[in-house]
Design goal:
This protein has 348 residues and is of the alpha+beta class. The chain is 17% helix and 16% strand. The protein is built from 6 helices and 17 strands. A 4-stranded antiparallel sheet has the order 1-4-17-10. A 4-stranded mixed sheet has the order 15-14-13-16. Strands 8-7-9 form a 3-stranded antiparallel sheet. A hairpin with a 2-residue loop joins strand 11 and strand 12. It is globular, with a radius of gyration of 24 Å. The two termini are 41 Å apart.
Length: 348
């Protein structure tokens, strides 16, 4: 960018004004200012948001008096289904990138946080290493569910928000304390970052402008009116073992640029959210169990106790071939693989 030859003029004018302030009337002082003075009030440009962070508000239109969106979780895919009531929340359009994970992890470890796993850059990166320019937007992998919730607390504190996860009133800051993490409580009203509930995740994968797409299709398999359209190719919406043998940068599924694309260069689902099917499995909050019917308006966060946590969305790996919106997986929260990651949400 070219330097303005008068870039120091405002400072010189200010000094001159202070020196002459007692000798010249205000009008005379202003009349003596050079034209460049008019540019001194231009606000300082704010840094652009990182390309891998883009929160989108979804849920019922409360401005129109709608309190809940209601849908059937597991519809067309699970033997047991149930109704779920959804209130507004924000969700990142992208799976959590290694760039963001690494930045927050370093801050967290300098501020009293501990992680069992340092994470890695996509499916083939080296654990804990600094992100590379070419791979920084790969999703973070090889982290456990415990690591993910503790990282969410760190990201919340780093941004001046209230952490969501605690045990016995203490904010969780150590993912190696698995007993405390297993008994974690979530403050659903806090403004901090957290994992989506399973109900929130499926809602974000299936909601369209006209209702809900079928659960037995990849997220985004809809026509221009938001109706389910099975003719839409999965390869245009998801990175899975049918079109890749590795992770790709977040938000590039269906992109002509393939692995060289930037976040958002691929195809999103109907809500503008990327990779809800494929790339990496995504952790949810809930313990895995059969769906239970709930009373009208009840917030769904799964059972209080369990043995395995839910993950959703499918991945690049042939071990996770189910990538439909209603498909679900169960994993020990201590497991960490190069096909597992997460995305974060915030309550509203």
């Amino acid at each position: 960018m070219k330097r303005n030859p008068f870039h120091r003029a405002p400072r010189l004018v200010l000094v001159l004004g202070l020196a002459l302030g007692s000798a010249l009337p205000l009008a005379a002082q202003q009349a003596s200012l050079p034209p460049i003075w008019e540019r001194s009030d231009i606000p300082v440009a704010t840094p652009a948001k990182p390309a891998d962070i883009s929160m989108v508000l979804i849920g019922p239109d409360t401005a129109k008096g709608i309190i809940y969106d209601v849908y059937t979780i597991g519809e067309h895919t699970q033997s047991y289904t149930a109704r779920r009531w959804i209130t507004p929340f924000e969700i990142n359009r992208y799976e959590t990138s290694y760039r963001l994970w690494y930045e927050v992890r370093l801050w967290a470890e300098a501020n009293g946080y501990t992680f069992n796993n340092p994470g890695q850059q996509g499916s083939g990166g080296r654990r804990g290493r600094e992100p590379t320019d070419s791979g920084k937007f790969q999703p973070v992998t090889n982290i456990s569910w415990y690591d993910a919730i503790v990282w969410c607390n760190a990201y919340s504190e780093k941004n001046g928000r209230t952490p969501c996860y605690s045990y016995n009133g203490e904010t969780l800051r150590d993912s190696s304390n698995t007993a405390a993490c297993d008994l974690a409580e979530c403050n659903w009203k806090a403004d901090g970052y957290r994992l989506p509930t399973e109900a929130e995740w499926e809602y974000a994968a299936r909601r369209t402008s006209s209702g809900y797409q079928r659960g037995d299709l990849a997220s985004g398999t809809v026509d221009g009116n938001g109706a389910s359209d099975p003719s839409v190719q999965e390869t245009n919406l998801a990175w899975f073992d049918g079109n890749t043998n590795t992770t790709k940068p977040v938000g590039t599924a269906g992109s002509a640029f393939g692995s060289n694309g930037a976040p958002g260069s691929g195809n999103s689902n109907a809500l503008g959210i990327y990779d809800m099917s494929g790339n990496v499995l995504e952790y949810c909050w809930d313990w895995y169990a059969s769906y239970q019917e709930l009373g009208p308006g009840t917030f769904s966060s799964g059972p209080e106790f369990g043995a395995q946590r839910v993950s959703r969305g499918g991945s690049w790996s042939p071990y996770t071939g189910f990538l439909y919106c209603g498909d679900r997986y169960a994993y020990d929260p201590n497991e960490a693989y190069n096909y597992m990651g997460f995305r974060f949400v915030t309550s509203r």
